Each structure stands twice: as C-alpha cells, then as structure tokens.
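Predicting holo structure, S-adenosylmethionine bound.
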Amino acid sequence: MDQPIPICLRVTQPDIELWERLQWFRQQPGCSWVDQQNNLRSLPELKISRRGAELILGKSRLAFHPNMALIRAINILRGGSDRFLDATQLKAGDSFLDATLGLASDALIGALVVGESGHVLGLEKSPILAAVIQDGLKHLSETSFQARTEHKKKAWTSLVHAASRIDVRWTDHKEFLSRCPSKSIDVIYFDPMFRRTFRESDGIQPLHQWSEHSPLDRQTVKDACRVARKRVVLKERKDSGEFNRLGFKLMSGGRYSSVDYGLIII
Ligand SMILES: C[S@@+](CC[C@H](N)C(=O)[O-])C[C@H]1O[C@@H](n2cnc3c(N)ncnc32)[C@H](O)[C@@H]1O
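Done. Tokens:
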C-alpha cells in the first residue's frame, strides 16, 4: 500500500464518547494521524462531532450517510425493483462480498436483503475510507433521524440493523481474492471507480480524492469466478469497454440509466 497522507484528528468538544471514537480511529491500520496542534493547515482533517466523523480537504467534505441507500430501501420494502438486486439476485442467507465498498450504499442494500442469516463483507483499499465508513456504519443507530412516514421509519430501522451486520476490511480485493478458498462466497460484486468520470452530480463525487482508481484486473475477475458459488457482478458506465475486456455479459434493462451491470454466472 502507498504511504498514507497524514490526517489531522480532532474532536469538536471535550466529550468522553468523542474521545473514545478518536482513539478508535488512531488504531485503524494504514492511516497516519497528526494531532490538531501540529496541523500545518494544509493537511486534511478528520473532524469528529456528535453528528459523526467528517473528512475535510479544502472545500471538499466526506462523511458517511446512507441517503441513497435509504431511498432504495424505501422502494424495496414497498415491493419496488432495484437494478443492483436484479443483477446480484441476492437472497436471504446468502454470503455477499462487496469488493469495492466505497460509501457502502450497495453493501447496505445487500445486508438488508441477505438478512441475519446471511453475511456481508465489504473490502476497501483506501484505509481512511475504510475507517470512516466502518465508523459510520457502527454509529448509525445514534444518528438522529426524523421520519415523517411509516415507510421511511421502517426503512431506516432496517438499514440500522443492516449496517450492524456489515464487516468492513481495509484491503486490496486483488490480494484478498487470491487467498480466498474456492466456492466460499455466494455473490461477488465490483463497482470500481469508472474509467471515465461523469458522476459530477452524484453523491460519489467527494469520494474521488480518497479512493483507489486503478482498473479491475483480469486475474482478480478470474479469482472471483473461482471463489464465487453463484455469480460475479460488475457495475460500470454504459457502453464501457470493461465488460468486454473482463468477460462480463451485459444484463438487459436500464435503458434510461447511465450505468450497466455485467454478469458472470457460475
Ligand atoms: C465507485 S466506489 C463504490 C461505491 C459503492 N458501490 C457504494 O455503493 O457506495 C469504488 C470504491 O472501490 C474502492 N476500490 C477500488 N479498487 C479497489 C481494490 N483493488 N480493492 C478494494 N477497494 C477498491 C475505491 O477506493 C472506492 O472507494
């Protein structure tokens, strides 16, 4: 892994719970921290407040919040469709590997569907992202949330439970999959940073400066096919050459969507 950029850690008020949260961050592998008094101002900052942890770099701010997952959960619980679920075909009791965790929206939807009898593991190559998202998932139940409708309340409660069931690991999926036993995970999912970025307006934008951008490699897909029991799924830009290059068959549908899903059914 590359040498991490030092990040200045601070809590917004002298509060024992916030200090404990700060100490937890200090122990996360792969990250490098400096204390607030040593910050040279140019360093990024991780601010821990009662509202959660926020990563700040210049004007850019990144925090965990399951906004997108909540909208999708409301729709799913009302019986609506979700293209990620159409592609992954996840069922209660499945084991699901989200090999590109990012902001964990897909992992949350996965955990919602596989339920308590299933298992979700999310891999993230960026140590600071892995730490911020793990912290956010762990503390989701403490996030204040006002639901005006019953649907929204139910979806929020389901997501809080789903969040507590996601295991997060800071690792490169390439290394992880090369060491995984064959036929040990039901569904493996890749949603890498797109080869050509067009996501200016979506919620993934603040992720850019912290995330890993290298393309998915063929050997990793080969390993995923060896490890998966049911299927391997790739999400990419519409018309992306990645589906062809990596051997995925396009799932039909999503005519009006900017993304496509590719499948390798085992
Ligand atoms: C587009 S985001 C995923 C978004 C995610 N599906 C969601 O719902 O929020 C891609 C993420 O994969 C991570 N990533 C890229 N290559 C990786 C690798 N080799 N191993 C683990 N994570 C990787 C990036 O750092 C980034 O956070």
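The mean pLDDT is 92.
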